[in-house]
Specification:
3 helices; globular; single chain; mainly alpha
Length: 72
């Protein structure tokens, strides 16, 4: 069996890492201290298609696999 990630999975992993470092991490401590919900970040996650990864495309999702979901 081949357990290597696919090109799509590697792209998702890289995108998730970049998003976390550039969008989530810089304001995480502030949000935690002030108990703020990151509505803008969640909106951006949706725009990137990260919130509907495992939803079938006919229902508006990306239809991706579980490995991609876990990498995200």
């Amino acid at each position: 069996m081949n357990f290597d990630f696919t090109e799509d999975q590697l792209m998702i992993q890289e995108s998730a890492r970049d998003f976390a470092q550039n969008e989530i991490a810089p304001s995480a401590v502030h949000r935690d201290i002030n108990a703020e919900f990151p509505a803008e970040i969640v909106k951006k996650l949706g725009e990137l298609g990260f919130l509907g990864m495992m939803i079938l495309p006919e229902y508006g999702g990306a239809g991706l696999d579980t490995i991609s979901y876990v990498l995200l």
